[in-house]
Amino acid sequence: MRYNQRSHVSEGSSDPRRHRSHSSKGLFLQAGHAIMMKSAFTIRKAVIGDAETVSRLTRELFAELGHMPPINDLNQSVAFCKDILENDKYVVLLAVDSKGLVTGILTLNEGISIYAGGRFGVIGEFCVLPTMRSKGLGKALLEKAKEFSQSKGWKRIEVTPPSKEKHFRTYAFYTREGFREIGPRLKYEEEPR
User: Fold this and answer.
1) Helix (H), strand (E) at residue 60
2) Is this structure's pTM higher than 0.85?
């Protein structure tokens, strides 16, 4: 499939490629709108056969952000990706160029809370190949995430982008796409035993 006006999800596998992360303050989006595309590419849902691609892309994402991957061993990481790709509350969207190379990734999972009025989507990882940035690819991935969110009956999508100060363009992308600030997020991690 090629995209001229609107993205669609299809099944298959691809090769990993470099990317960009969009992961300090939480934002959310009320379910959304249509888009126009600037170049030809495919947006498809990742399948278990894509586990290595997903693992490599997310590992590169962590490296770009200066973070250690949560699972250092590649084989264990691939096994973990296979596990989560089987979960119907988790979806990985891959953007593939006309040559079959993965040029972007967006992961989306289900959250639930009283403050959100029930179930909602959470973007975990969102990365676009540097040469594909500002060409509509991130917008197409996000549009497909909105469509998936609507199909699940979620009323909002949340994301934790990098800081405004360090990654102004990323933050501006989210606000341009209808996200608004709802506050910072913190995390607590158990120490390894």
Assistant:
1) helix 51-65
2) no
Considering the four listed CATH numbers 3.40.50.300, 3.40.630.30, 3.60.20.10, 3.40.50.1820, the one that applies to the domain covering 25-182 is: 3.40.630.30
Alpha-carbon gap, residue 49 to 31, rounded angstroms: 30
What stretches of 22-140 adopt beta strand conformation (E)? 25-30, 41-45, 90-97, 102-113, 118-128
| Cα-based distances in Å from 78 to 26, 51, 53, 54, 59 | 28, 5, 8, 8, 11
| pLDDT tens digits, 97-126 | 888 888 899 999 999 999 989 999 999 999
With the C-alpha atoms ordered 49, 95, 92, 152, is the resulting torsion angle positive or negative?
negative
- C-alpha angle 18/21/106, rounded to 5°? 85
Between the CA of residue 165 and those of 86, 151, 158, 169, 192, what are the distances in Å?
A: 37, 34, 20, 10, 32
Domain definitions of the chain by residue range = 25-182
